[in-house]
Specification:
dGTPase-like; Arc Repressor Mutant, subunit A; alpha+beta; 3 domains; 4-stranded mixed sheet; 12 strands
Length: 481
């Protein structure tokens, strides 16, 4: 019998780690995670949030293994699933998601690292194929209801000290099931309330922790500092896959230019100031749609144009639209499968709640501007932040920073909706996308943007014992563009 060690964890208590898994933990790729903060610069708001990707990965391994044991599926290799839980984050850059800049893709670098690793009982090809799996194995690690999410919610709540994130992991695990016909992961009816509590916890963590204005400001500064040293050629994108937080901070402190200045400001907690907030509810669908379609490079151009116009440094913080992938989780009720959002009114309402907590903010350089001086500028943005909003959109349009031809004329979803007052069923879009050689990932991403912005509305239609989603274009004025 393979030897094992016990690692004491504040979340899951004793985590048993096998000797073959210890050999992975002891690699340079995995040890690097000890120095990568799980929640970026949240520690500037919640001082105890210094937990890292290292312990989160151990926790994900544990939860993934427990989920696989519960399924008791002969096609599942529990040992391999635990390894995938260990390795799922090894491609992260310093400070985790904060520095997924310049098209950095942590999943790509995770794959590249797995290719070069040695495993006691598996070929690297086997591990990589399982990591890429879209079936049951993949869903246990990065699906709608995965081990990654279940660990980080509890862990982030524990280390930040907030009163959210308390979910009944064991109840969820006892309720999971797999569906042979679709090779997917779902839950039994008895687990619906446990999944709902997970979703509530994540929603509460979203504005309180993950979107906290101060941590967002700090992360925006760190991101721009890193973009500066990337632009100067001090580091390359791929270097982020081998650096940890310590490497990055050292590099920024020793660099010349604006990146070093931003790092010094972070060191002394001299942060940019939030001078304008544009809540979701006060933005028009087209305004939201344009903002979330700004590329990273065009956002940088917009910020430079704002600097020229306003006379001081500004950063725009445009969060990615929140994803609620759990709404797709299949629920087994009386022998029939339903989506979670079809049987849970709470899940439907959470979609609306997430939108209301989504804000676009504008940050100004503290050393160059004060609240009083904002008023004395050419543009009175302190008393009327929407004057600044008008300036932003005028610049986007004047310099064509968002390609409206691609947004509207070449958008196949909008074209279909322009020809049909109501599109009945997601399968209509799927068939068109397939005919055009477009992947479901592209379809899903674009449809989510349109739905989130409010450009397109979705309605659930019950047809006997099944459900269908109908789609309608809200702003029909864009058809005449």
């Amino acid at each position: 019998m393979e030897k094992s060690k016990i690692i004491r964890d504040p979340i899951h208590k004793d985590i048993k780690v096998k000797e073959s898994e210890i050999s992975i933990v002891d690699t340079e790729n995995f040890q690097r995670l000890r120095n990568i903060k799980q929640t970026g610069l949240t520690c500037l708001v919640y001082p105890s949030a210094n937990h890292t990707r290292f312990e989160h990965s151990l926790g994900t391994m544990y939860v993934a293994g427990e989920m696989a044991k519960k399924l008791n599926n002969p096609n599942l290799d529990i040992n391999l699933i635990r390894i995938l839980g260990l390795l799922h984050d090894i491609g992260h850059p310093p400070y985790s998601h904060t520095l997924e800049v310049n098209n950095y893709d942590h999943e790509y670098y995770t794959r590249q690292k797995i290719k070069k690793m040695n495993f006691e009982n598996y070929q690297s090809r086997e591990v990589l194929e399982s990591y890429n799996s879209k079936g049951l194995i993949g869903k246990l690690i990065h699906g709608e209801m995965d081990s990654d999410r279940m660990d980080y919610l509890i862990r982030d709540s524990y280390h930040t000290g907030v009163a959210y994130g308390s979910i009944d992991i064991h109840r969820i695990i006892s309720s999971i099931t797999d569906f042979e016909d679709s090779n997917s992961l779902g839950i039994l009816e008895k687990g619906v309330s446990a999944i709902e509590s997970l979703l509530i916890a994540r929603y509460q963590m979203y504005p309180t922790v993950y979107m906290h204005p101060v941590s967002r400001i700090a992360e925006c500064m760190l991101k721009n500092a890193t973009l500066d040293i990337l632009k100067e050629g001090i580091i390359k994108n791929k270097d982020l896959s081998i650096m940890d937080d310590i490497d990055l901070v050292f590099t920024l402190r020793k660099s010349e230019g604006y990146g070093r200045e931003l790092m010094k400001m972070l060191d002394t907690r001299n942060l940019f100031k939030n001078i304008a907030t544009f809540p979701y509810r006060e933005l028009k669908p087209l305004e939201i749609y344009k903002l979330i379609n700004l590329t990273e490079s065009n956002l940088a151009i917009l910020e430079e144009l704002l600097y020229d116009k306003m006379g001081f440094k500004l950063y725009l913080d445009i969060p990615k639209p929140p994803k609620i992938v759990e709404n797709k989780v299949p629920v087994l009720i009386n022998g029939k499968k339903h989506r979670l959002d079809e049987v849970s009114p709470l899940v439907q309402n959470l979609k609306v709640a997430y939108k209301k907590s989504w804000n676009v903010r504008v940050y100004a350089e503290p050393n160059k501007i004060s609240n009083e001086s904002i008023q004395t500028q050419k543009y009175n943005i302190k008393n009327s932040p929407y004057e600044l909003k008008n300036i932003i959109y005028n610049l986007i349009d004047e310099y064509e920073l968002v390609n409206e031809l691609e947004l509207f004329d070449n958008n196949f979803i909008i074209n279909i909706l322009a020809e049909n007052p109501v599109v009945k069923g997601y399968s209509t879009f799927m068939a068109y996308a397939k005919n055009k050689g477009l992947s479901e990932a592209i379809l899903s991403s674009e449809l989510q943007k349109l739905l989130f912005s409010g450009m397109v509305k979705k309605r659930t239609v019950q047809m006997g014992g099944i459900y269908r989603y109908d789609y309608k274009l809200v702003d029909e004025s864009i058809i005449s563009r």
